[in-house]
Amino acid sequence: MDNSQTHSFKDRPNRTLIRLAVPVLFSLVAEPLVGLADTAFVARLPGSEPVAALGIGTVAFTSIFWAFTFLGIGTQTEVAQAVGGGDRERAVKVVSLASLLAALIGVILMGAMAFLPPIASLFGGVGAVNDLACEYMFFRLLGAPAVLVSLACFGGLRGVQDMRTPLFVAVAVNVVNVGLDWLLIFGSGSIPSMGVAGAAIASTVSQWLGAVWCLFAVHRRIGLTWRMKGAGFARLMQVGGDLFLRTGGVLVFLALCTRVANRGGPDQGAAYQAIRQFFIFSALFLDAFAITGQSLVGYFLGAGDRFQARRVARSVCLWSFGTGVALCLAMVTLEEGVAWLLVPPEAYAVFGPGWLVVSLMQPVGSLSFATDGIHWGTGDFRYLRNSMLVASVVAGACVLVVDSLRPDYVLVYIWLATALWTFIRAGFGMVRIWPGMGDAPLGK
After folding, report:
1. Is 74 in contact with 124 (CB distance < 8 Å)?
2. For position 444, what pLDDT does the model report?
3. Contact 116/135 with Cβ under 8 angstroms?
4. Residue 4, helix vs strand vs coil
5. Residue 358, Cβ neighbours under 10 Å: how many?
6. In this predicted structure, what is the pLDDT of residue 3?
7. Which spans are transmembrane here (predicted)?
8. How far apart are CA 212 and CA 181, in angstroms?
9. How far apart, in whole angstroms, are the C-alpha atoms of residue 83 and residue 221?
10. H/E element holding 318?
């Protein structure tokens, strides 16, 4: 049976794409607010040590969990293809396996509590800052299973194109976290002030509540089972390996850029950080189309309807490119305002040229995100891994050349290398679809 015949995308492609992408966008924007809320409250504590400790704990925590993004991405693709093919039983098994695996990995990660002091030291924690960072990470690690289970459940829900539940969960987690932050960080009545530890406990409690909600939603929307034979454990692990290497390429390249920018002096470093924050924020808009495209492409391929899957690819690329153009124009217009808000006055001179480069690269960057989502939907993870590694090696070599030559306006050259990195990724992504380089899943 061709399940794609009843899908709304067939008759209303643009409306369907936007209807699914908007909740994804807001859920992506909501997720980083947990860390922002923690920072805002902890900044009210006396001294600079609490904020420094929070920064170390947050970076360490985020770095650890980047390695397990396959629990969400891989689950979303497998569930979407199973549902598209009418194999509801396999979708139940896949999301059940991913959720169980997420819980087990989370429990194992809790064992990192024994190594917190050296981890904090690795990120620059010394003395009181190290102690507070360890305290923060201890309580955050108690929520590790909840974070990973939510990640797997989000993938399952988005695989069946339920984009609203992840949004509701993300908003609820933020609301609970903000309320608990104020109560636990500063104390009230019989509840003592817990400082940085209170921020971690607030996040952990809210994430556990979110995980319970996610599991309930998955059970109601898809189903859960202990009978997981045939769920594709080996396939999920293969996806995990490919995404681990791909993520490693991203982290190494971005870390290299940050290092070279900071070696250019405090002005270059400050301007780079300001631009990088906006660069990451703009990615949220483009990821919304990528995640939506992943679900739709997976669904139609599962249904055996390659024609509709290619229509999805075209629509996602067009909408992403249009969004990239809009971001470009907005960034050019907002340059002075962003500089005033985020950049020290002495760094204005180096900020402007670098900001212009990043603004102009948004349209091309939009296609790199769009094609990532499309190829996630096809399950073409090895191709994405290889293209990312090629882009990171080539662009990373350019950054090293910049570091050795130390030209004026180092920041411009770093972002030009980043533009090359983006162009290579977008190029590989596009030619895999049109005309269909190699054994392309969407090739004619």
Report:
1. no
2. 64
3. no
4. helix
5. 23
6. 63
7. 20-45, 51-73, 94-116, 136-155, 167-185, 197-218, 243-262, 274-300, 312-334, 354-371, 383-402, 414-434
8. 20
9. 12
10. helix 306-333
Q: Give start and end residues of each alpha helix (H) in 160-193.
A: 164-186
What value, to the nearest 5°, has the Cα angle with vertex 209 and ends 239 and 61? 50
- CA–CA dist 67, 79 (Å, integer): 21
To which residue do tokens 């293809």 refer?
81
What separation in angstroms does the CA of 340 have from each of 334, 346, 352, 370, 436?
10, 11, 11, 32, 46
Q: CB under 8 Å, gap of 24 or more: what pairs does 44-50 form?
A: 44/185, 44/186, 45/185, 45/195, 45/196, 49/128, 49/129, 49/132, 50/132, 50/195, 50/196
pLDDT tens track for 264-286:
887 888 788 788 878 887 888 89
Contact 8, 16 (CB under 8 A): yes
Percent of residues in the chain assigned helix, strand, coil, to nearest 5: 85, 0, 15
List 191's β-bridge partners, or say none.
Answer: 188
pLDDT at 5: 65
Q: Write out the H or E segment, with its range, that includes residue 416.
A: helix 410-433
What the block records as the tokens of 293 is 């495209």
User: For residue range 364-385, what is the model confidence (pLDDT) as tens digits?
Assistant: 999 999 999 999 999 999 999 9
Q: What is the mean pLDDT of residues 340-349?
A: 83
Query: Taking each helix axis from N to C terminus, what angle separates 164-186 and 144-159, rounded to the nearest 10 degrees?
Result: 160
- Calpha distance 380→108 (Å, rounded): 29
Angle between helical axes of 88-109 and 70-84 (0-180°, round to 10): 170
* Letter string b/e over residues 340-352, b meaning 16 or more CB atoms within 10 A of that residue's CB: eebbeeebeebbb
**Residue-by-residue DSSP string for 56-123:** HHHHHHHHHHHTTTHHHHHHHHHHHHHHHTT-HHHHHHHHHHHHHHHHHHHHHHGGGGGGHHHHHHHT
- In this prediction, residue 1 carries a pLDDT of 42
Phi, psi torsion values for 69, nearest 5 degrees: -65, -20
Residues 6+ apart with CB under 8 A from 41: 181, 182, 185, 186, 199
Write down the residue that tokens 């598209």 correspond to. Answer: 84
Q: What is the model's pTM?
A: 0.92
